[in-house]
């Protein structure tokens, strides 16, 4: 079927939902269609635990938060963007409070500000250890009240329609009817999140397959800094636990990392020990695991805090670990590092605008210059909020000059229903494994070249499959995942230094000159 809308928002995490809210307020007479490939709440946003970084208290200063962000970004941040996002944080946090979000308070009524690695002050506003769940729910409740926003769940964007660096809308798979719709829009906004499913171990939910980055790349958007994939040091290690993150806030409250034998090791790697930046903690664990041959290390809060404190501050982690018979008030938690955050992405300005006209990218899929070579903890929900606000302002300004241009319908050609689902799962598995082993926390040129050879073979196979068989969501995701994997590999090969979270044993030092990595199709 053909649809027309003023604004097509793809994704229902913090960025897509906030954009719908801000835009609806600014242009209430325009139609907004918000689509999402699973249920509304299926997003990384829902899983965020730690909170949102914001200078809130008189003891803290914007300059401190800016400095911490620039230090983490290791020479690659865009300072103007960093300043704009950080100084806007209190206003955007107030927007959430006005919508009804109740951040956790102390007994005296002040907000309970948490501390995370890389932050020089306590500045993380949170809702216990389930901030994302509360943020997502408040946003969903408020978006559902809007008259000019239509929501479609289980609609998966397959590809954008773009010609000569101008975007007209998107082809979208309706998973209930199996139809591919043609949606024309004045502006299309990708708010599709990260790509953690590229790696064997990840904290990300299943939706994080890099769809937006791959679609934008095919449409001609410049993709930047994709070699910087942040690994979270502590994901629960258990055969049946799928992607469960153990928040950094636990280390902020004194939890220590030890080997399985109970030996602390972080003092050997960084003066801030457990509160060193994430990349250093991840590399330290990786190095301990390589030395010992163990498959996990331990994170111990039980011997540092009393059980009531642990249960009241970390109820989500306490309950979830208990499901796997781990009582975190009595014993240490087995953990491994996992792919967590896509620091690079589609090169955009702060308002999400790209080099492709009428195409905007916000949130984790975008690379605005806030994070540089490494993301400071809890800056990403903030980026989603600020950039959706800026994007809404830009979109509303030019509204009279924008037109809806229709484009040709999807051509299924001779595609037949797939009878070989095993090909998809096999290819997916292969990519995740070699990305983990060859393009993971510590890289070498040899491993990267091996990964490149493999991804080229797989991409040929997957592209063939894509054109021969009827489109289904798994196939769309696999194709995007493979495209983004190749972008990461090529970006990592081109960086002949170690900087931020990109660490290559063949070039262990940092170059004097810092430069971003940019790629545009064809490379
Ligand atoms: C476990 C975990 C803990 C985290 N903790 C924190 C934290 O404490 N603080 C912090 O700042 N950040 C945290 N992060 C990072 C942060 O949650 C994300 O960066 C942020 O939520 C991204 O928001 P987003 O709106 O860009 O994307 P998401 O929230 O991931 O939403 C993406 C949306 O796009 C949809 N989508 C994707 N592809 C398609 C497609 N092809 N068609 C249609 N829809 C599509 C998805 O279904 C989803 O609705 C955490 C992340 C994880 C995974």
What brief labels describe this structure?
523 residues; alpha/beta; binds flavin-adenine dinucleotide
Give a quick summary of the entry:
With 523 residues, the chain is of the alpha/beta class. It is 36% helix and 17% strand.
What can you tell me about this protein's structure?
With 523 residues, the chain is α/β, with parallel strands linked by helices. Helices cover 36% and strands 17% of the residues. The chain contains 14 helices and 17 strands. Strands 1, 2, 5, 6, 7, 8 and 15 form a 7-stranded mixed β-sheet that branches. A hairpin with a 4-residue loop joins strand 7 (166-174) and strand 8. Flavin-adenine dinucleotide binds at residues 10-16, 35-38, 42-45, 47-52, 131-132, 156-157, 191-193, 203-204, 207-208, 211-212, 245, 341, 363-364, 378-381, 384. Residues 10-16, 35-38, 42-45, 47-52, 131-132, 156-157, 191-193, 203-204, 207-208, 211-212, 245, 341, 363-364, 378-381, 384 line the site of flavin-adenine dinucleotide (FAD).
The number of helical runs is 14
Q: What would you call the structural class?
A: alpha/beta
- What is the typical, i.e. mean, pLDDT? 94
Q: Rg to the nearest angstrom?
A: 22 Å
User: In percent terms, what proportion of residues is strand?
Assistant: 15-25%
What is the rounded distance between the termini?
34 Å
Spans of at least 5 consecutive residues whose pLDDT stays below 50 are: none
What's the count of strands? Answer: 17
Bound molecules: flavin-adenine dinucleotide
Helix content: 25-40%
State the major sheet.
7 strands, mixed
Dominant shape: globular
């Amino acid at each position: 079927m053909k649809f027309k809308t003023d604004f097509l928002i793809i994704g229902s995490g913090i960025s897509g939902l906030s954009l719908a809210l801000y835009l609806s307020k600014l242009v209430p007479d325009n139609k907004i269609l918000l689509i999402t490939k699973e249920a509304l709440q299926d997003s990384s946003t829902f899983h965020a635990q730690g909170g949102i970084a914001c200078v809130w208290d008189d003891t803290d200063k914007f300059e401190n938060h800016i400095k911490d962000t620039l230090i983490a970004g290791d020479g690659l941040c865009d300072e103007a963007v960093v300043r704009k996002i950080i100084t806007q944080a209190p206003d955007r946090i107030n927007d959430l409070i006005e919508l009804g979000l109740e951040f956790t308070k102390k007994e005296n009524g002040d907000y309970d500000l948490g501390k995370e690695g890389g932050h020089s002050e306590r500045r993380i506003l949170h809702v216990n250890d389930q901030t994302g769940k509360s943020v997502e729910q408040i946003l969903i409740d408020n978006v559902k009240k809007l008259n000019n926003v239509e929501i479609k769940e289980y609609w998966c964007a397959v590809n954008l329609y773009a010609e000569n660096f101008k975007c007209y809308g998107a082809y979208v798979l309706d998973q209930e009817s199996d139809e591919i719709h043609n949606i024309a829009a004045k502006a299309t906004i990708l708010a599709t999140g990260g790509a953690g499913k590229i790696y064997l171990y990840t904290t990300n939910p299943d939706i994080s397959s890099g769809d937006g980055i791959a679609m934008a790349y095919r449409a001609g958007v410049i993709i930047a800094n994709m070699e910087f994939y942040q690994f979270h040091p502590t994901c629960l290690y258990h055969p049946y636990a799928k992607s469960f993150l153990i928040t950094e806030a636990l280390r902020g409250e004194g939890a220590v990392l030890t080997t399985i034998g109970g030996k602390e090791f972080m003092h050997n790697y960084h003066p801030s020990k457990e509160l060193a930046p994430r990349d250093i903690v991840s590399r330290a664990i990786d190095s301990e695991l390589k030395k010992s041959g163990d498959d996990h290390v331990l994170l111990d809060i039980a011997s540092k805090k009393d059980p009531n404190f642990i249960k009241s501050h970390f109820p989500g982690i306490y309950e979830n670990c208990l499901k796997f018979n781990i009582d975190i008030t009595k014993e240490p938690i087995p953990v491994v590092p996992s792919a967590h955050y896509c620091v690079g992405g589609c090169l955009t300005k702060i308002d999400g605008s790209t080099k492709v006209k009428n195409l905007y990218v916000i949130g984790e899929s975008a690379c605005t210059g806030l994070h540089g070579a490494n993301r400071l903890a809890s800056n990403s929900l903030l980026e989603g909020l600020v950039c959706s606000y800026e994007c809404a302002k830009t979109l509303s300004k030019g509204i009279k000059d924008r037109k809806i241009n229709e484009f040709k319908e999807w051509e299924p050609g001779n595609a037949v229903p797939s009878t070989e689902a095993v090909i998809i799962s096999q290819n997916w598995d292969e990519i995740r494994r070699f990305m983990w082993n060859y393009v993971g926390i510590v890289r070498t040129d040899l491993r990267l070249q091996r990964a490149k050879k493999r991804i080229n073979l797989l991409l040929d196979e997957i592209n063939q499959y894509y054109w021969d068989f009827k489109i289904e969501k798994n196939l769309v995701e696999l194709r995007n995942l493979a495209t983004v994997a190749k972008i990461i590999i090529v970006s990592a090969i081109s960086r002949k230094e170690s900087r931020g979270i990109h660490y290559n044993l063949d070039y262990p030092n940092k170059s004097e000159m810092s430069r971003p990595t940019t790629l545009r199709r064809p490379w």
